Amino acid sequence: MFDKLFGRNKSHETVDINRRFNLIGRVGQGSMSKVWKATDLRTGKTVALKVLDKEKTARYEARFQGLKKPNEGEVAMTLHHPNIVKTLEFGWTIEDEMYLVMEYVEGVGLSLLVDLQNEEMKRYRIRYMIQIGEALQYFHQQNWIHRDICPRNVMVAEDKQIKLIDFGLVVPNTAEFRKPGNRTGTASYMAPELIKRQTTDHRIDIFSYAVTCYEMYAKRGPWDAAMTIDAVLQHINKPPLELATVVPKIDKRIASTIMKGLATNPDDRWQQVSDMVSEFRQAEIRLVQAARDSAARKSSDSGSEDGSVAPSAGTSSKASAKSAGKAIAPASKSSRDDSPAPRPKKKKSAE
After folding, report:
1. Are residues 125 and 271 in the same domain?
2. Is 181 left (phi over 0), alpha (psi -120 to 50) or beta?
3. What CATH number is given to the structural domain containing 67?
């Protein structure tokens, strides 16, 4: 059964992960997998080793019997983007469990920063939102639906680079996989059409992305805690709490951009994630200019320092930096809750 579900046959080589890898320590655990920091004894590299739970994964894959659904390893190997964790290989263990070998990212989970709402989150969150959006835009361009965008599935590397890390619920963005019935994901981030078991498409990811951005500002979701499907019915029956009400200092354009992504009707949302990213980029430029103007009004002998604006990482970061200007006052000196961050010193993430 497992061979059929995973697209595996007996000719595939299996790996004894306890001999192939030195398992340094557990660094993560999902509903269907465990992740270790490990040393690949073949290459000497430090990697993240993800091992899928055989029975739980088989139950999930059984929903797609008769369809040519790629498994997580096959999906992950197609993804090549600076804001998506790189998968080096995948295969099967001697216990018939799928494993993935990925680059090891030294950093913290976005969910921790959402909970802390510390200075790092306040200074860099526009950059983080843009990077998540660029990763998701790439994802959709490759004709995938992620189905589980949430802070838990995002890492923030030491160099402030976002990495999308989990692809366990991904399906192709094709008619057969958009049919009603597949209600999977994380409850608090589920789009209304997914909850109602209606036809879905990539716009369910836009909804989840908007919930994630909302939390990055508010430290809470747009609705009351939603840990069950019954509680998530609020996504259908109750309008989301206005973000500008929860975070009065937020830039109004940013707030309205996020709120549009939360629309109950997918036709009322942003139709492409790139449209949301464009709004965030324009807000970043506007806030940079406001910070520059504020700095220019200060006395030259006030003792304040000039800092460099941190352009958002991604394919268009150079254009953003050029438009925004080269120098502003450090974001920590701004009274705004969404002020841009200075450029951090570059550090290399461990692989």
Report:
1. yes
2. left
3. 3.30.200.20
Q: How many CA atoms lie within 13 A of 171 on its CB side?
A: 25
- pTM: predicted TM-score of the whole model, two decimal places: 0.82
List alpha helices for the chain, DSSP H. Answer: 2-6, 17-20, 54-61, 72-77, 110-116, 119-141, 192-195, 203-218, 229-232, 234-237, 243-246, 252-261, 273-297, 317-324
Measured distance CA(62)–CA(77) in Å, rounded: 22
Do 117 and 95 lie in a common domain? no
Q: Do 14 and 97 belong together in one domain?
A: yes
Residues 97 and 140 in one domain: no
Continuous segment of H or E residues that includes residue 40 = strand 33-40
For residue 227, the model assigns a pLDDT of: 61
Residues 331-340 pLDDT 10s: 333 334 565 5
Q: What is the C-alpha separation between 14 and 225, in angstroms, rounded?
A: 43
Q: Answer positive or negative: Cα dihedral of 214, 220, 225, 226.
A: positive
pLDDT in tens, 2-25: 344 444 444 578 999 999 999 999
Domain encompassing residue 115: 107-278
Q: Are residues 65 and 144 in the same domain?
A: no
Residue with tokens 């094709």: 174
Torsions phi, psi for 72 (to 5 deg): -60, -40
- Co-location of 52 and 113 in the same domain: no
